[in-house]
Amino acid sequence: MTDDPEEGMLSWDESVFRDEHVFEIDYVPETFIHRGTQMESLKYALRPAVRGSRPLNVMAQGPPGTGKTTAVQILFDELRAQTDVQAVRVNCQVNSTRYAVFSRLFEGVFDYEPPSSGISFKKLFSQVTDQLVEDDEVLVVALDDVNYLFYESEASDTLYSLLRAHEEQGGAKIGVIVISSDLDLDMIEELDSRVQSVFRPEEVYFPNYDEAEIVEILRERADRGFHDGVIDTPVLDRVAELTAEQGGDLRVGIDLLRRAGLTAEMRASRTVEHQDVEEAYDKSKYVHLSRRLQELSDSETALVEVIAEHDGERAGDIYDAFSERTDLGYTRYSEIINKLDQLGIIEADYTDVDGRGRSRELSLNYDAEAVLDRI
Predict the structure, then answer these.
(1) Which residues pair with 350 in a beta bridge?
(2) 225/253 Cα distance (integer angstroms)
(3) φ, ψ at 237 (rounded to 5°)
């Protein structure tokens, strides 16, 4: 046993991380395991694009953190590197209107953003499709988190424009991949009949990873992100166990590895211990909540805050507090309730009120203090 208390401690310019970016949300792993069947299904649908034809449309669904976005990013990188196919992924959490989606497509096709104002959707649409025809190129569009288009009632118009582009501009070849983590959303059923008649996608399902698969994936990530010997097998197993408790969402596990590493560094430790994991988990378990709250508008955030302060009260009572804070009317208030309910941030359950019919009771799906800390 050493008498040196500094033994095994980090100096101020050292780190447990070999490459901290490995633990970021936008990192695309070099090794993508346990998704071979899904990758083959996606390649099958996209193969006609490589031959210059319109690809098959795809509906990719699965719980959060099951590799849907990563699979599409890997295939899109391959398409851009090896073919002339244009491949554009649109984050619908951020771009939740038809116009915003086509603005991102314009940027993908022309390599610069469209004017911020003064250009109609019709002109934006025609410039994108005209360029595709002129260059004789196929465009594959991934609408990631497409459920946000449904929440804003923009899905049918957006998909209609994409799927009918070859009719509006002869020769335009566009394929669509819709990606959703909302398993309660029946996308086909929610679309207008005019879209249902043309949107007949291949369905690709991404199931939850089991705990053994989670361990293997996190081990590969830890080996790339940490220096040798930083995290041992029992500690990694605990990270995988906590990840499985959060529905198997790998984003929780990856975020937990990073936060545990940072916690170990705060102790000036060269190794990640169980105590670092347990302490970091208090934040990592809310990774979904943090992401969802970040994407809300000011008025939507205001309502979440009011509900957190009046958790479990009836919608009418909460509206009074919300109206005082925002001056918004009841129609917009009701629309925001529906969106927050669909996002899983709140529960909006109908209850019977004596002598007054039915009323919605609003409550958070998360700890109120955790919500308020992240707003």
Answers:
(1) 360
(2) 13
(3) -60, -35
Taking only the tens place, the pLDDT of each residue in 164-217 is 999 988 889 999 999 999 999 999 999 999 999 999 999 999 999 999 999 999
Residue with tokens 């953190």: 65
**What's this model's pTM, rounded to 2 decimal places?**
0.88
Query: Token pair 């959707």 is at which residue?
Result: 121
State how far the Cα of 218 lies from the Cα of 239, in Å rounded to an integer. 8
pLDDT category of residue 355 using cuts at 50, 70 and 90 = low
In contact, 151 and 345? CB cutoff 8 Å: no
Q: How many whole angstroms separate alpha carbon 236 and alpha carbon 251?
A: 15
As given in the structure block, the two tokens for residue 350 are 């109908």
| Pairs from 45-51 (Cβ < 8 Å, separation ≥ 24) | 45/175, 45/177, 45/202, 45/204, 46/75, 46/79, 46/85, 46/140, 46/175, 49/79, 49/83, 49/85, 49/138, 49/140, 49/173, 49/175, 50/79, 50/83, 50/85
| Whole-number pLDDT of residue 357 | 61
Backbone torsion region of residue 185, taken as left when φ is above 0, otherwise alpha when ψ lies between -120 and 50, otherwise beta: beta
Compute the average pLDDT of residues 340-353: 84
- Provide the pLDDT for residue 5: 43
Model confidence pLDDT, tens digit, residues 318-334 = 999 999 999 999 999 99
d(CA 209, CA 222): 17
Identify the pLDDT of residue 356. Answer: 56
How far is it, in rounded angstroms, from Cα 187 to Cα 339? Answer: 15
H or E segment to which residue 357 belongs: strand 357-364
Tokens of 280: 């970091």
CA distances from 98 to 167, 216, 372 (A): 18, 39, 32
Q: What mean pLDDT comes out for the span 20-48?
A: 96
**Separation of alpha carbons 151 and 372, rounded Å:** 23
